[in-house]
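[Q] Does anyone have a clean structure-token version of this?
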Amino acid sequence: NVLAYADSIRNGLDIPCTNGLYSPVDVDNIGQCAAVCLLEGPEKHHGKYYEMSGPDVFSTDQMIQIMASAAGKSVKTPIVSATSLPVPSYLKQCLILGEEVLPRCVTPFNNDVGDLIGTDKWTTFVQWVESNKTAWA
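[A] Here you go.
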């Protein structure tokens, strides 16, 4: 969750990042997808698998810079290897996945969210940032 960076952005602190790529999805879009599936019923969605991703793909560095810029802040995001971070093993494994595997994925990861709710309702990361920037401004 990128909100974990809020205090560091607010205070202009350096935020070490890995090279992983991510496709952040707005939780409101996930709720909209769930509503569509429930309203349209099992006839259309039973047994289906939908991947929840956003319409954009960014590195952590890019996401933090977008967030900082929207708040009028400046932060440095030095790139570090996921294996060098002093975090719990489970988190390190997730970061390694993001760093090593996800960059080989196709951009965007998929269109399931846009197909379910309509691409005009699919929240971009920049839109989400503009709507939520008071959390770190």
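[Q] Thanks! Anything notable?
[A] Helices lie at 6-10, 27-40, 42-45, 60-70, 89-100, 112-117, 125-132.
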